[in-house]
Design goal:
This protein is an all-alpha fold. The protein folds into 2 domains: 1-32; 43-177, Ferritin, core subunit, four-helix bundle (Ferritin, Up-down Bundle). The protein has helices spanning 2-31, 43-65, 71-92, 107-117, 121-147, 155-177. It is elongated, with a radius of gyration of 26 Å. The termini are far apart.
Length: 180
């Protein structure tokens, strides 16, 4: 009887140890990062992505500005045009990003613009405003990613991206407040 009890205890100990080891292994694997570089973003890719997004925004704003002579839309377009120029001048101050000027709109951007152009009146304007909101959110996301500790490798660019987030957020807030 004692042997049977001691075998059962021994088996429970081994099962408990095995279960504990399995649990520890699961915790370790859950904490392990597959990509050791995490969110590292190439500085040139960041610059090209934000410039492409800004080109898209300028196309959206040009269409919004034509929309029914709304002073709010016209003011938004003018304000954004000025802030975009200042933004691009700031970005151009990074010498290693000078060769990032050759790009076109993405296929998604072209599709979205064509889709919006097929709409009329207020529906057209609402679609454009929605596209601008999405684009603002994309720009914010790119800057958040680039400014993280594991963002772009250049520390100055990381800091610059972090500083731009508040103005990008203000842009988003301003568009979201527009009523047609």
């Amino acid at each position: 009887m004692r042997r049977l009890i001691s075998k059962q205890i021994s088996l429970k100990k081994r099962t408990g140890v095995f279960g504990l080891l399995l649990l520890i292994g699961m915790l370790i694997s859950a904490c392990h990062k597959e990509d050791e570089k995490g969110y590292v973003m190439d500085a040139k890719q960041f610059a090209m992505s934000v410039k492409q997004e800004q080109l898209y925004q300028s196309e959206v704003l040009a269409r919004l500005e034509k929309g029914q002579g709304s002073s709010a839309l016209s003011n938004l377009a003018n304000k954004r045009r000025l802030s975009s120029a200042a933004y691009n001048n700031d970005l151009a101050s990074f010498d290693f990003l000078k060769d990032t000027n050759s790009f076109d709109l993405s296929e998604k951007h072209v599709f979205n613009l064509a889709n919006a152009d097929n709409k009329m009146g207020e529906e057209h304007l609402r679609t454009l405003l929605s596209m601008l909101i999405d684009s603002d959110q994309t720009l914010i996301g790119l800057h958040v990613k680039a400014s993280s500790n594991q963002g772009v490798q250049d520390e100055r660019l990381r800091f610059w991206a972090r500083e731009k987030i508040s103005s990008l957020q203000r842009n988003l807030d301003e568009v979201q407040k527009i009523k047609l």
